[in-house]
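Think of the structure tokens as a kind of shorthand, similar to the way a musician reads notation: each symbol stands for something richer, in this case the local conformation of the backbone. In the example below we present two proteins back to back. Begin with the first one, reading the sequence and then the tokens, and try to describe in your own words what changes along the chain.
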Amino acid sequence: MKFKNDEYKDRIIDKQIKEYLNIFPAICIEGPKYSGKTWSSLNQSKSVYFVGDPSKNFQNRANAELDANSVLEGDKPRLIDEWQEVPSLWDAVRFISDKDKSKGKFILTGSATPVTKGILHSGTGRIAKIRMATMSLYETGDSDGTISLQSLFDDNLEVTQTKSVDLDELIYFTIRGGWPENLGLSEKSCLNFSKSYLDSIIEDDIYRVDGIKRNQDKLRYLVKSLARNECTIVSNKTLINDVKNIAEEKINNETLNEYLDILKRLFVIEEQLAFSPNARSSVKIGKNVKRHFIDPSLAIAGLGATKDMLRNDLNTFGFIFESLCYHDLKIYAQSIGASIYHYRDSLSREIDVVIQLKDGRWGAFEIKLGNHQIDEAAKNLYKVRDYFINTLKVSGPSILVVISGQSNRAYTREDGVLVVPIYSLKN
């Protein structure tokens, strides 16, 4: 029988998990700790093995290390939770999937990408990976979901009255983040959660990934620098100088790349890739990534900010709000099979978010906190669209969209630009 939690909130990813179990012998759900991977997996499992169970001096982990195959015995789909603590489990699942190609046998979950030493096979064709994020506003119930991302590409947007959210509520959404355990908690409790989360990553989890001791102070300063540069294109040189200026600590490029890699492997940060029109042009298309914390609450924790600080510094909160919107747009895009990018070229033409559908159509999205910024955003969208069409001679965006933080309605402007509040959006 399936495991049930009466308080479980449906996740957008549930549909993809179900679909993949009908296609592949095994799936692996990866993502940050406490994002809900285990409960989403239990919701579709018939048996479970918790590798990280600390009871009896971590007996489950010891058993898995001694005999991986015995761990895999049980009703299917069988959940193997935190498999990365015993990497040989991957090969065991792959081997069984080679012998028995029936679908939906195993669900693996992991909150870190382990070192590849000891893993003999990629699992291609046998184990499908699914990336899970923290909850979107639609999943937490804070978006009324009156407008779907897919419908923006397919239908004309009619004027739609949406819920109204004030600045304090928006700030709270970013402080709380999308952590299931934070739902209903106070601002202070949510701030403590995020601070503790980063402390745990730096003081414990980073060492546990590969057993290498790293300078915790430099890691903290790097996290602070990344938070200061949330939603921006920032070079390694800038990060190195930032760490030096913050704490008078030196860090070289090799060490920086190592630290960035370990933060990605632990699903603390992620990269928003650059969009390329794939056309000839004398203008250099930027290839640098934007780095984001996997949840806006971690950027706030990295800054050491509070609600009052963010309310009194709307420039900083504007970047945090963009982080929230990127986070949600990525979840919605992933669920419809779309890819998400940013765009910036050598002449500083830029788009906050580019979403490209599987059929090649793409949309340009600008993210603005205040209504007074919508006109400016619309002009920028048209400037970039005209450049693509008239100069690059390629297809321009199918839709131009401003994601708003203060509007209480979704509508189409006279110039054709769509305006959509983030708290009215769903997949």
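Once you have a description of the first chain, move to the second and do the same.
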Amino acid sequence: MNRKIMAISISAWALASVQLAIAQSPAKLSRRIGFIQGGSTPVSLVDGFRKGLSELGWIEQQNIVIEYRRAQGKFDQIPALVADLIKLKVDVIFTANIRVALAAKKATSTIPIVILVPADPVEAGLVISLAHPGGNVTGLVRFISELSGKRLELFKETFPKLSIVAILWTPDSPGPSVAFKETQAAAQSLGIQLQSFEVRGPNDFDKAFSAITKNHTNGLVVLGGAITILQRARILEFAAKSRLPAIYDRPEDVNEGGLMFYGVDEPELFRRAATYVDKILKGANPADLPVEQPKKFELVINLKTASRSTSSFHRMCWRERIR
């Protein structure tokens, strides 16, 4: 009788253990993160976000699932992508696109939203203030007002003869719009004639390139937006063929052959964004998490491009990190 009781006890214990294991399987324990890209986020930045999560103990397919959604510059698709993640009941939404952030905020007031946006989130209506966001949105901003002016100033210092500079940008995006105004102000103080070339879609680029060539500009500033990011290869090819010195606001442009970049350390910001996700998954209220501004900036020059395409560059051999 005692053996039967022991056997039944062991069987019951084994069954309970199996049921507990099933209940605690990764699929059951996983927290869901929605990651929506408005344009085309470089793999290095996505990896930076994932690395930040792993450093904090969040491993994909073990205790988290990241639901990736990409609009690829098709802004009309953004509301549907947001709605899809809300339907999946994700624990938090992360985006580095301000259009997506605005759409997500409009669609939900309960799911926390972590942002990494290029424009002032207060002015955009995403948060009440940087110190006290006050809603379900928090995160980081990768733009400060002095950044675009400093970019043009460094461009002028590198090429003292710059006098007519073309600026390629997307007026429909909040980040580039602010950067354009700051660049305009800097151009006036530096004695540079700034020529604006607006691009809203792929068909606008050939016309812009033709006009830049005809106007005899001797420099090009490219402001990153969903459209200019998706058309990066065309912009880089144009600058190379025209032997036109160009400065960009995203490091990927220089990594892929562009001449100069000045801006924030984006991989570090994506890694930092993971800390916000971590805090929220552990119970923090986004309303109480201050929005962080960038603290580290980089000036990077592609020496191969410099030696190949710009004689006035004098083959300067430097790569400087500005803090």
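Compare your description with these statements about the second chain. Confidence is low (pLDDT under 50) at residues 4-15, 17-28, 311-323.
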